[in-house]
């Protein structure tokens, strides 16, 4: 099943004395990049959550945010007077320096902003046993990840449908290219005969063997059979990757580059308006495909 790297989920939970809320969201990335904003006073929380997420996702820029609150914590919060005095002194010094030396008028700092500074309010929970909370959070995370991956799978199903349609278009255009290349043969043969006649008319010393070699070389340079065969092979490979279980985004990205390479070569060898048109249509569809592939896990 194709899975998108884009997704979002959020939920809440609680145990005796604690409640929490978290959300997880992701966008596309070349690899797996996990960033977390979680309480640092819960021993072992971040590595434990990271290990669980790594088993649930293979690629994507994933951001996890967790807020934990102790029941009644607002009433029991303590202010560290020493830290508060230092913070207020520094703020005063900054305001005076900004006004006196730099002619800057700073916006006033609110009490909420001050209390949010590290160390002003004692929220360390250092005297509490956080092991039960850690266990509860680890047990709750899989539900969040299930919702997260359900959304990514839903978006992935839509992506897979789009990619299958684009691959079918590439297959159809490749078939058209084969037909056009057959029609081109007579046209190229006529052009070669005409050009050869001109050469022979203007030269009494033309070497028949050399002329034959040049004609053979031209025929090889303009032959697109291999490009068409490789395009058909890439179509089969792309369908196989979409049918696989597990991440296929990197392989599809590489394959789309190979598609583009063959389409470019087809255009450069064309020398036939209809084949050139088909090659340009191929490049347009392949470019659209590459954009979609960037979101596949």
Write the layout of secondary structure elements.
Elements lengths: L6 E9 L2 E10 L4 E6 L7 H12 L3 E11 L2 H4 L1 E2 L1 H22 L8 H5 L5 E2 L8 H71 L6 H15 L2 H19 L5 H21 L3 H21 L4
Parallel strand pairs: 3-4
Antiparallel strand pairs: 1-2, 2-4, 5-6
Helix pairs in contact: 1-5, 5-7, 5-9, 7-8, 8-9
What's a concise summary of this model?
The chain has 9 helices and 6 strands; from the N terminus they run E-E-E-H-E-H-E-H-H-E-H-H-H-H-H. By secondary structure, it is of the alpha+beta class.
What descriptive keywords fit this protein?
single chain, 297 residues, alpha+beta, Ribosomal Protein S5, domain 2, Butyryl-CoA Dehydrogenase, subunit A, domain 3, 3 domains, four-stranded mixed sheet, two-stranded antiparallel ribbon, 9 helices, 64% helix, elongated
Structural features, described:
With 297 residues, this protein is an alpha+beta fold. It has three domains: 91 residues, Ribosomal Protein S5, domain 2 (2-Layer Sandwich); 38 residues, no CATH class; 140 residues, Butyryl-CoA Dehydrogenase, subunit A, domain 3, CATH 1.20.140. 64% of the residues lie in helices and 13% in strands. The protein has a four-stranded mixed beta sheet, covered by helices on one side. Strands 5-6 form a two-stranded antiparallel sheet. The longest helix is centred in the middle third of the chain and has 71 residues. It is elongated, with a radius of gyration of 33 Å.
């Amino acid at each position: 099943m194709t899975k998108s790297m884009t997704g979002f989920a959020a939920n809440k939970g609680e145990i005796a004395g604690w409640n929490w809320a978290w959300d997880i969201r992701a966008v596309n990335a070349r690899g797996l990049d996990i960033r977390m904003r979680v309480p640092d006073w819960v021993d072992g929380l971040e590595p434990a959550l990271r290990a669980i997420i790594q088993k649930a996702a293979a690629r994507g820029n994933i951001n996890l945010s967790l807020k934990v609150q102790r029941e009644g914590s607002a009433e029991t919060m303590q202010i560290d007077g020493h830290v508060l005095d230092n913070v207020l002194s520094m703020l005063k010094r900054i305001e005076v320096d900004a006004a006196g030396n730099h002619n800057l008028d700073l916006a006033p700092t609110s009490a909420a902003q001050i209390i949010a500074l590290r160390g002003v309010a004692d929220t360390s929970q250092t005297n509490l046993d956080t092991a039960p909370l850690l266990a509860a959070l680890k047990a709750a995370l899989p539900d969040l990840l299930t919702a997260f991956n359900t959304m990514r799978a839903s978006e992935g199903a839509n992506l897979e449908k789009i990619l299958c349609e684009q691959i079918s278009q590439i297959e159809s255009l490749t078939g058209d290219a084969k037909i056009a290349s057959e029609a081109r043969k007579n046209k190229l043969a006529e052009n070669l005969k005409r050009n050869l006649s001109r050469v022979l008319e203007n030269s009494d010393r033309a070497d028949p063997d050399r002329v034959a070699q040049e004609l053979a070389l031209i025929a090889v340079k303009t032959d697109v059979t291999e490009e068409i065969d490789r395009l058909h092979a890439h179509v089969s490979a792309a369908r196989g990757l979409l049918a696989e279980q597990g991440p296929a985004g990197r392989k599809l990205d590489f394959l789309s580059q190979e598609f583009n390479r063959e389409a470019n070569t087809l255009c450069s060898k064309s020398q036939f308006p209809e084949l050139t048109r088909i090659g340009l249509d191929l490049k347009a569809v392949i470019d659209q495909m590459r954009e979609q592939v960037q979101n596949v896990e």
